[in-house]
């Protein structure tokens, strides 16, 4: 691929990834990937945005023709809002003047962008002796798990924000607690996989660029909403909510002679018992 030159689509005729090099990135490996599913998604989205932009521009053009818009300034403002909203300014040739507004698609620009649909490049300095090309792509895609964990910490499972710290010590402590919590959640997800929709036996993908496939067992669990043992299947968050119903209640009974105070644990459900079994723990009867 020459600088600023056309994409050599023949690189992807027999494979979805190829390792290349470029003098602008000395000492780095460049892995060019093409995801057909992503290419179709981007092409479909572009087509929708083009149609929506044209519809709005047609309305403006009708207003200009009818004389409701006559000055170039107001016309330009209206047009600018439309192409900015859909981010389609680069794909249209616009002509604006007093009492005049025309537009056409810039087909050459559209085709040039379409040539890159589904294509992305991963850069790495890890030598091939330590990580082959397929492993580079797989490792990059595994970052989705890291992003999921940060979302979990911030707003899904723990809802730790907004929290404001004003000293370095408190910032470091907060980050440490977040990472420790994330480590705990990772282990809980692994241990509770039989009770959740987690794919316990995800098949190895022959093509690391292609979307990951779920195992037949995971698909059955999702369609039936039950585990292979017949128990109700949960999302991880749903399981946490269910476990939260297992409560310890402080009971106080007033008698004629003495008052009695004791703790009473709610009767655990089968799922709650199973969750503790998977952790190798029993439900504690007393606080220590």
UniProtKB/TrEMBL annotation:
Its taxonomic path starts at:
Bacteria, Bacillati, Actinomycetota, Actinomycetes, Micrococcales
Q: Which domain of life is it from?
A: Bacteria
Query: What segment(s) does the record annotate as region Disordered?
Result: 203-226
Protein name per UniProt = Transposase
InterPro entries the UniProt entry points to? RNaseH-like_sf
């Amino acid at each position: 691929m020459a600088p600023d030159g056309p994409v050599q689509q023949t690189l992807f005729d027999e494979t979805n990834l190829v390792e290349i090099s470029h003098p602008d990135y000395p000492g780095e490996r460049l892995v060019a990937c093409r995801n057909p599913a992503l290419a179709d998604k981007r092409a479909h989205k572009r087509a929708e945005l083009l149609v929506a932009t044209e519809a709005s521009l047609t309305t403006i053009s009708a207003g200009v023709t009818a004389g409701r818009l006559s000055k170039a300034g107001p016309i330009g403002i209206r047009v600018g809002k439309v192409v900015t909203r859909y981010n389609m300014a680069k794909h249209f040739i616009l002509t604006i003047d007093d009492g005049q507004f025309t537009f056409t698609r810039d087909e050459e620009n559209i085709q040039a962008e379409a040539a890159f649909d589904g294509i992305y490049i991963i850069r790495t300095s890890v030598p091939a002796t330590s990580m082959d090309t397929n492993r580079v792509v797989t490792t990059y895609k595994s970052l989705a798990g890291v992003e999921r964990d940060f979302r979990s910490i911030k707003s899904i499972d723990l809802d730790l924000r907004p929290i404001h710290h004003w000293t370095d010590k408190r910032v470091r402590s907060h980050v440490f607690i977040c990472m420790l919590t994330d480590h705990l959640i990772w282990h809980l997800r692994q241990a509770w996989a039989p009770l959740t929709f987690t794919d316990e036996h995800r098949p190895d993908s022959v093509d690391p660029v292609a979307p990951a496939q779920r195992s037949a067992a995971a698909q059955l669990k999702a369609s039936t909403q039950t585990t292979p043992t017949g128990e109700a299947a949960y999302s991880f968050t749903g399981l946490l909510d269910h476990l939260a119903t297992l409560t310890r209640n402080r009971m106080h009974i007033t008698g004629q002679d003495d008052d009695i105070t004791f703790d009473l644990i709610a009767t655990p459900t089968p799922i709650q018992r199973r969750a503790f079994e998977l952790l190798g723990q029993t439900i504690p009867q007393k606080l220590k």
